[in-house]
Amino acid sequence: MKNRSLVSISDYSKEEYRKILDLAEEFEKNPRQDLLKGHVVATLFFEPSTRTRLSFESAVSRLGGSVIGFADSSSSSATKGETLRDTIKMVCNYADLIVMRHPLEGSARFASEVSSVPVVNAGDGANQHPSQTLLDMYSIRKTQGTLENLNIFMVGDLKYGRTVHSLLIAMSEFNTTFYFISPDELKMPDEYKRFLKHKGLKYYEFKDFTDIINQADIIYMTRVQKERFSDPIEYERTKNAYILRNHMLKDSRSNVKILHPLPRVNEIHLDVDDNEKAYYFTQALNGVFVRQAIISSILGFK
Amino acid sequence: MKDIKHLVVSAIKDGTVIDHIPAKDLFKVIAILGLDKIENQVTFGSNLDSKKLGKKAIIKISGLFFRNEDINKIALVAPEAKLNIIKDYNVVEKKVVEVPDNITGIAKCVNPKCITNNEEIVTKFSVVDKKKVILKCFYCEKITSQENMRII
Q1: DSSP code for A175
Q2: Which of B113, B122, B132, B144 to mutate to test the interface with A (most CBs of A within 10 A)?
Q3: Which residue in chain B has the smallest CA separation from A107?
Q4: A218-221 and A151-155 beta bridge pairing
Q5: Is CATH 3.30.565.10 the right assignment for the domain spanning A131-284?
Q6: What is the CATH number of the domain that holds B108?
Q7: What ipTM describes this predicted complex?
Q8: Mean pLDDT within A130-153
Q9: Among A8, A84, A85, A105, the residue to mutate for chain B (most B Cβ within 10 A)
Q10: What pLDDT score does B2 carry?
Q11: Of A39, A164, A267, B148, which has the fewest beta carbons less than 10 angstroms from its beta carbon?
Q12: B114 touches B137 (CB < 8 A)
């Protein structure tokens, strides 16, 4: 992993996932170390994202490193028409690692080709967001004690959800059984179902959010967005069907945890927050440890 | 009987004949191989009758022989193409084209939000299905199928 960019979740092998998760566990026990003292990480956010950016910046700062960068492309010379190529080539001079979020797909892969320092993809359009997937896996492993043989439920927008696609690919290495709950308009695309079939993994699809969730070890919630519906009436009819409420969890497994990549809008009702099964805020905290693990291994400190 | 076919496009002494190109794709093949930019003598015929393709095209390039990796690029648009290597007016070798595993710089990514469509970048694809010619963009990871494929 040393000196290699992390652009897609498939850039890492199963063994490498494990290494990162083990390392994140170490950092969780000891998050303040001076590993990165004297090193500079550039956070280039061409598209704003408070959570991911602050998570990376916290990860670096707590390890004694410095952060430079911009939070919005309007603060960069992209406004002067500078190409991504030129921006990256320039930033390499100023930093030891680049963390990048950009609205165009493939931008991080391209940046990793052009850059003389490693690039960590913090989200390229609708394509990849590998540190999110790794922190999701960390959260799953931490709460379930294992990654193997779990029942993972994915709820909401499974068609456009970058995080669910990526999590599916990663968790397919661990004999997961998948349960998809979504409106017809937003079903898990065929290519992912084919991928699971090819791997010999079982999956089940549901339109209704019912007692079936009592089978879940993990419930991964995503937002159903209005703009994804071609028919606004269909949206109005469906939007409340995928909201998780506390009473729906009364017969759920004792080990089940609710995950959400955040921000949540209304898909997890506030009444769930006090349930010990609600894990989404801790999930966000885990992001810091996982990002510390990613950055330290790429820079060769662990 | 064989000679009558060849009279439609004159025989060449040394070089390469590319036969069984679908007539509609003649100029795509010319573009892919850069034949519009070379100095060699190039002759071609289009809308010739073909049992296999209905209407086919033939290109004959004098004094030019292709490396496999260069000629295989045309497999994207002309997977049935056949090559005859000519030396001293004789066919000394016959080759078929094979769809390569990777394609650089020929096809356009179908995704308008791909970085390759927004900046000066040479496109790169891996071929995920050789029969149906399905390409996966190396950058944005989206699939471009044969019907959506545009040659640059």
Answers
A1: T
A2: B113
A3: B115
A4: parallel
A5: no
A6: 2.30.30.20
A7: 0.88
A8: 97
A9: A105
A10: 52
A11: B148
A12: yes
By the 8 A CB rule, do A110 and B119 touch? yes
- Token pair listed for B28: 């795509």
Give the minimum alpha-carbon distance from B132 to chain A in angstroms, rounded to a whole number: 15
pLDDT digits (tens, 9 = 90+) for A73-99: 888 777 888 999 999 999 999 999 999
* Contacts with B116 from chain A: Cβ below 8 Å: 106, 110
Tell me the three state secondary structure of residue A173. helix
Q: Which residues 106-145 of B have a C-beta within 8 angstroms of A?
A: 109, 111, 113-116, 118-121, 137-143
Size of interface A-B (CB pairs under 8 A): 53
Distance CA(B56)–CA(A277), nearest Å, equals 66
pLDDT higher at A177 or A237: A177
| A109 closest CB neighbour out of B118, B119, B138 | B138
Q: Strands B15-22 and B82-87, how do they pair?
A: antiparallel
Cβ count near B115 (within 10 Å):
27
Are B119 and A86 in contact by the 8 Å Cβ rule? The answer is no
B88: Cα separation from own chain's centroid: 24
Residue type, A181: I
Residue with tokens 């890492």: A12
Map tokens 């995704």 to a residue: B111
> At B49, which CATH number?
3.30.70.140
- What CATH number has the domain spanning A31-128? 3.40.50.1370
- The answer to whether the beta carbons of residues A284 and A51 sit under 8 Å apart is yes
Catalytic residue annotation of A: 51-52, 80, 101, 129
Task: Answer whether A115's CB lies under 8 Å from A92's CB.
Answer: yes
CA distance A242 to B81: 53
Window 145-204 of A, Cβ < 8 Å to B: 191
Residue A177 has pLDDT above 70, yes or no: yes
Q: Which residue, chain included where needed, has tokens 């199963």?
A: A14
Tell me, yes or no, if A251 comes closer than 8 A to chain B by beta carbon.
no
